[in-house]
Specification:
mainly alpha; 6 helices; elongated; Myelin and lymphocyte protein; Marvel; MARVEL-CKLF_proteins; transmembrane; lipoprotein
Length: 146
């Protein structure tokens, strides 16, 4: 039990441990996906609605997760598994959203004046997907070692 408690950082230590320092780029790039998609014409609504849901959901839950880690609530033995599960689900959601966004962007090629914003959103979505996968893998390694 003592090793599982020490495996999860809290307070300012999250800014020095590798999987947890990824919170910051997840915020930045996830927020960029959200704002870039929101600043363009959301057409077709269905796939881009999913992209908006995923980016907003992950942004809000990552913010909550960040505050849980900062305050030290994450010190029970269940948190390493929850950390892996959350980041794996977020990575899967972002992968599906990034693929849908890329497909919509390819079909809109040359039809829209803000095509560069769509391309930037696709790139940021794949970067966020990669960040969440890395976070999930490193959290899984931490969970296994605790």
């Amino acid at each position: 039990m003592a090793s599982s408690v020490s495996a999860m950082p809290s307070g300012t230590k999250i800014f020095t441990t590798m999987p947890d320092i990824l919170f910051i780029p997840e915020f930045v790039f996830g927020g960029l996906v959200w704002t870039l998609v929101a600043s363009t014409l959301v057409d077709p609504r269905n796939p881009l609605g999913w992209v908006m849901f995923v980016s907003l959901f992950c942004f809000l839950i990552t913010t909550l997760w960040f505050f849980i880690f900062i305050t030290g609530i994450n010190q029970s033995s269940i948190w390493p598994g929850l950390d892996v599960g959350y980041h794996a689900i977020s990575a899967f959601f972002y992968l599906s959203a990034a693929v849908l966004l890329a497909n919509v962007t390819i079909t809109k090629q040359g039809q829209d004046k803000v095509y560069q914003l769509d391309i930037a959103a696709v790139v940021m979505a794949f970067i966020v997907t990669l960040l969440y996968w890395i976070h999930a893998i490193l959290s899984a390694l931490r969970w296994k070692s605790s």
